[in-house]
What does this fold into?
Amino acid sequence: MMTSQQEEQPYPFVDIYDEDEADRVFLTSKPTCFAILGKPSVGKKTLAKKLAQIWKCTLIDASELIDENITAETEYGIKCNELLYQGQAIPEDLIIKMLMKKIESPEVFHFGYVLCDFPSLSEEHMSIPEQIDVIRNAKLKPDFLINIKCPDYDLCQRISGLRQHPETGQIYQREEWDPDIIEKRKKKKKEPRKSAEEEEEEEEEEEEEETNEAIADQIMLTEILPHLVHRPEDFLENIQERVAIYKDIMLRPLETLMAEQDSQYLFELDGNKPAAELIATVIARLQSMGLRNGALITKLQSGEEEMLDGLDNDELFRVLAAYKLVAPRYRWRRSRWGRACPVALKQGEIIMGSTDYALGFLGKMYMLSSEEALKEFMLNPRPYLLPPMPLPPCKVVVFGPPLSGRTTLCGLIANYYQGKVIDMEDLLKAQFEEARLQLIEQTRYEAIQAGIQKVKEKMENERLYQEQAALIAQDLSDKEPDEYEEGITAGEISSVQQSVTTSGSQKESSIIKEEDEGEMEELSPSQAAEEIETSVPQSSEVTSEHPEVQEIVQKAIEAVMFSPILLPPEAYADALEEAITELSKSNKYRYPGAAEKGGWVLDNFPPSTEHWAALVEKELLPDTVICLKNAEQNGKVLLTRLYQANKAEVDAKIIKRLTDEALKKKQEEEEARKELQEMLKLQAEEFAEERESIDFDHPSASESQTKMPPVTESGQTIQPSASDETKEKEKSGESLETEGQLDEAQASLDSKEQQESKTESKASAEHIETEEEPQPPAPLKSVASELGVRLPEYPEDAFPDVVEMDPLKSKIIQFLHEWQRTEAAIAESPLIQVSELEIDGQTLQMLLDQTIQSMEQPFKYHGWEFGPEDDDEEQEDLQAEAEALAEEEEEEEEDEDEEEEEEEDEEKAAQRKRHMGDTKHFCPVILKENFILYPGLTENSAKYREKHYYFSTPENRDKFLENPEEYVSHNEPLKAPPIRICLLGSHGAGKTVCARWLADKLGIFHIQFEERLQELIMIKTGKRVGPEEEEEDEEEATIQEMVESPQSAAEELEGEEETKRLQEKEMLLTDEEEAIKANLIEGEALPMEVLDGIVLDWWMKEPFRSTGFILDGFPRTAEEAQYLADRCLCPDVAVYLEVDEEDVTDRLLPKRVQTWQEKQARKFEKKQQIKDMKAKLRAELVAQRRAELLVEQAKRKMEEAAARLENEVPDEEEEEEEEDDIEAILEEEFPKEEDEGEDEEEEQESEAIERMRTELSEKYETDVTNLQAVQEELEKLLIPEVTLVSKRKPHIVCYQLYKKLKDLIENRESIFEKCYPISLSLARKMLVLAYKHPSNFGQWDPIKLSEGDAIKPFQNQDTPSFPLIHRNCIYFFTSKENRDTFMKNPIKYLRQPKPKPTVPVKIAVVGPPKSGKTTVAKRFAKEYGLLRLSMGDAIRMVLNNQPETELALILKWHLQKGLTAPDELAVRALDISLMDTVCNTSGVVIDGYPVTRKQVDLLEEMKIIPVKIFELDIDVKEVLRRALQDKQIPNRYPYPMHDSSHILSIKNSCYRAQTEEIRPYYEEQHQNWYVIDATHSKWWIWNKILEEAQAITKQIQLYLERIRQGMAASIADLCIMPQELLSRLGEFGQYCPVSLAEKGELVDCSVAPSLKFAAEFRGHYYKMAGQEELDKFLKNPELYVPPLAPYPLPLPHKLPKKLTAADVKALFPMQAELQGFCPVTYLDGKQRYEALVPGDIEYAVLYRNKLYIFESEEKLQKFMRLPEKYWNQTLPHKLPPIKEPILLTALPLTGYLEQGVATALIKAMNEVGCLKPKFPFLSVKKTALLFIAYHLKAYNPKSSDYIRKKYKRKLERFIDHCELIPYLGIKMTQRYKEPQNRPIDFDHKLHTFLSLKDVDPTSH
It folds into this structure.
């Protein structure tokens, strides 16, 4: 069912598919360069000027260079000017320097050059060979050499006739000023014209032209002629002298240069032709080779003044695109540069171009920024457009909060663009350090001064405090110690201290802290006094070395060390400017062609407006600003990173906060508990006091009171229980324990805090330096763990949302605030690209990709929605096309119907002319995402790169416009999905048959929708589902119900279980399966969810997705069609099979009737089986019941018998009655079933047929209705439709179906391609303007090339050209049919081998008169545009076109004398005619030339060698017969023709005699003679000649291609002469290099003159032994030539030389080696005695000055191949005896005849026996003897060639005479015939027969 898909074509595209890549290839290609050669003043400069103007290249001429340099005031121009003012000539060296500089100039590298007048005749500075070497070694070598040939006489006459007007400097030719020539021209025009019947308008135009010419002639004769002067350089003797010098010193080097040039790139022109004709010839040849002219640069400026500055980019480009419009619908396209100046961008700056400097180049628009940029771009735009341009200069600033990945991204950007990261922190590191050192020094000085002051004040305060304390102590010394302790507390002492030190403490700095207060609180007065005493320093002097001063200084320095250093913004700008300047010096090494500017990425630059303003002031603005942000999820990613980086510090703060809170809470609880305990304690004390008082008054009461329970506050008593008491005790114990633990914990915590406070100051500095967050202290952790304090829980990829994160959040908020301000400042610079990148969910590579996309976004193609402006442009194009069509000449009128259709479908025609995108009219988004061809809607269209794209929805259009590069093709066309076909039709239309056949043929899937539904439901049901199946089930159930028989309980139970199981199985159907079942049974619509599970897989999943399918019977309804539209599931084509109701009935009814009959038969058989089964069952039941009754009866009888025995009363009558009762009971219980008639009347066949007809009719109507609805829905989707009438037989319908789908199937690969036919003039205009690229096919027709055609036709009226545009190239076709074929499948024809080099065909056709050579030549001229050239045509061309040349004058002299033109002059005329444009582009067919040996020699001398000479061979009889037929042609020429039989016979005889001389020459020298039997039809002859011409052309093309690629190429059939072969033989001469290298054999190939197995490699020829050796050599020639060749060719004296018998005799007295025995036979025979065989002197070889003779030619060839093997042998002592020869004349007669003439006699007798000749009026015997005699004479090998030819002619004449008798016997009839009714040659042969009477045959 499924086959493998077709493999891709092995060939790459002939043309580059991607348009940008095609532009790149052109920009990197070498421009076409020319060098024009020829004699002095031959017209080189004139031709160069015209060629430079037309081909758009640069003219390089000495005079032009001098003027250009003088005008430009260059260094060379100034020197030239000085020399000219001094009256000196400009030296050659200066001219050559200017010339070389011009060749290396930018404009030459783009446009190419035309070099003329170089080399010059002057050899003052450089010789001619040296000047030629300058051309050879130039950077841009000339591709083409154009040699203008002109005879000396004609050139001298033309130049000597030049005159110059002294005032204007204009030069006039002789034809313009010579009065005699002017008078002749007037007389010629006064001759009677043949235009009597011409139109009046043409006559008026001619009269007007004549009037103008007469006025011009009059002005020339009267006003100009008297003032003309003859320049000295134009004197005849001076011209002749220059020509002679040219021939002496320049001609030979130039010939060497031209010989080295590829012949295809060497143009030889006839200098006698006008300059216009010469330039036309050159341009035609260049175009035929597929070359393109220099790419023109067009200034896009309107003639009207328009204000374009205020327009936005879109409007601006629309206006510019319409300037200098190439053609309607072909506007200038937008480039990737947009408005950016390419020159500035190449220099590393993004500067917007100006509309004043807008240009068009390669079909695209470019805008330059300045006049200088415009000049540079127009000189050579290539370096500014070549990849990697447009490339951003890479001036990037990256902002971002901490840990956003800013630095890493900077590195990635710099690495991608091969730039450098500029880190501002690194740049300013030295400045930061210097500023910090200055700050430290300043802080040190200030801290020392402040420290000394503070220490002094402290010392003074301490002294005062000591004195006051001493006074207080003295006052209190008299008090008691207890009072002292109680009254004087440490607090009082401290208050005194505080009062003393108040004034000093208020002045102290925040750096100095008082640590004395806490310690003094717990000191006694005496201890405090002692402390005060000890704290007073001994010395009152304070210096910087004081410890406290040092401590103050150290703290200040430490604070300054970690404080931020702020530099002014100008410092940042200055440092950045310096870094960029330094970077620009090395920027050129980034990559080839890199700009000096750019290439930097700025990191750690402060995001502040002040710093940005500093950049603006310094003009250091970047092109791109990247800001990394985290706006998603409130900055979750950044906060997480910050938290992870500061995790230890944050966690420590969190733990400390939570611990403090826990301790505070615990302390509060403890205080509350203490208060409660104190309150309870007071209550207990009060209670105890009251009890004591009561006990004292009432002891008993007290006792009872002690037993009373406690009383609550409300007065109720509480009965204490044991448990309560224990609980109270436990609580009290716990409280005591808790209090103790708290005290211990508090004490430990206090001690730990003290230790922590001591170590905190030491660790803080280390933490700041390393920026590592400290871990929480261990004591704090232990306390936290004891208190159960833990960190809050949070996800792994998140952070705890606590107050400790607020400082980190503030950093981000601060950055965002600064960025907002900076962004506003950046927005003031509109050229800066700002991109904010979200880091959430992005990797670094993704961020880099977004950055690159942001940077390169301005340099990408942009798309836009199709809007009203685009519609207006399209309407303008349509109107312009209509106007252009109306202005063209009227073509053939089309049918009215076609015109009406065109008028109706104007909108469709407009859409058809639109330039569609890479997906044609299909939606590219759905194609990319779903691999489905979905026709887009025109209302959802967009334009991208000036091409239209249609989309299914606006959402898809927006998605495309966001990133169009993702959806378009690049280097390959988009891959088309496999074919998907919906085959629809009513039941019985033959859908399944056709679908299955087509699927098998295409190798795709066949899907039958309803069958697929059945497969899905049968998985559960186990059977098919449907109306017919339900009817069958009901009938079977009815039949089953007819079985009514009692069954056993087990069977009933089993049946119930089975029924239950089936019901359960049926109940397990899912909703989808229920929907499918309902659809199959009741026709209910399938829900979309069900269709999703079935239909989607066919489009979306493998193997259907990549293979394709034919969907049979879907969609069936409009709802299902709408489902396809909703799911974007479109088939490629919808095929509708139409059929009539009668056809459906005829197809389906017989099968249904047969099914009904089979069903009825089964039903009857089933009923019969049931009846038989019932009868059998009744019999079994009756027998069983009878047995039971008999048992009962027997039992009863026994009882009765017993009773009777007791009563002794017999009763026989009762027994009989009982037996009758049994039968009655059985009859009653089992009554016999009567044959029941049909309860329901059975359906008859006629009724069934009628019912089925009605059902089919209803089904057909339903299907047709549904199909119409489906068709309407699919039409809305723009699905192509194919309607096919399926009435005929299935195989015919299948064939018709495939025929209609053939284009869609075979052209599948080009489904997205679209071509646009254009006119030939528009094609040439586009190529001239470089708007489109020429195809690599050039002028070749791709269709004909794919068919194997190797001859390229010339464009003329008979062979017009039909161009079209495909993508970015223009193709040419020879017919509209070929163009239409290409348009159907362009990819097929673009994937073929590239066309070979163009080879003009040069063939000759010769033959006797009436052989058809002129017919063949004219056919070539008509089919391929070749020039048919006979010798008369050549002479007439010279006489008509060059009447004043020397050759024409001599020809006229001979013709006027009535003489025949000499062959020498005729060949010269032929040579001139072969310079025609057609001959050099397409080729020439020489008609009937050459025919003599002299003509051949002259052609060889002129090097005119046809690649193939076709000889049309016919005998004289056919010549005469054709002549007679030509005489019967009614429209013959009015003048007499030389076609009489006598003249024709003479011509034929002369032709054959002359051809016998030239045929062997061409066969031997060139192997280009090909004989064709011309007796066949003209079509057979044409096909044969065309086949051979194609073959030889392909051979030449292959040779040229391989040679240009440096490969070896076969030289067979290239007309290489033996002399040329010998002059260019390689290192191995005529020996086969392959045989020598592989076998070590010397195979001499000189014996075979053919070049069939010869090849050329590296300019040398090599001959091979055979085809196998040739193939090996062509594949790897380097292995067989030096230096890789394993064996060199032996020296000449060591090569074997074959000798003739005469040569052997001449060597006498040299004796043969081995005494004349054959050395090869001896050695091959293993040197046995039997192998000693004497040799023959006919087979002799001279080797190493020794003579060897061999037994046979075979043995000789063995020795020649391996002489080293056989040459050095020694004979044995015993030799065979010498055999003496016997003379032939010594033999007997029979032996003599046997040895002498036996072979000749046998051949002659065999011929006479086969022919059985009978000469008129001679006996048979004598005739036979004469025949044998003639035969022996004609084929005697010892006779001379003349004798053999003589007797061969006699033998032929004798045979012709012998054939007269059988001919006359056949043609002569009994009745007389009139002469006109006889055969043409009957009378002639009868006359010959009668004339042979009494004639001796030997006398003829």
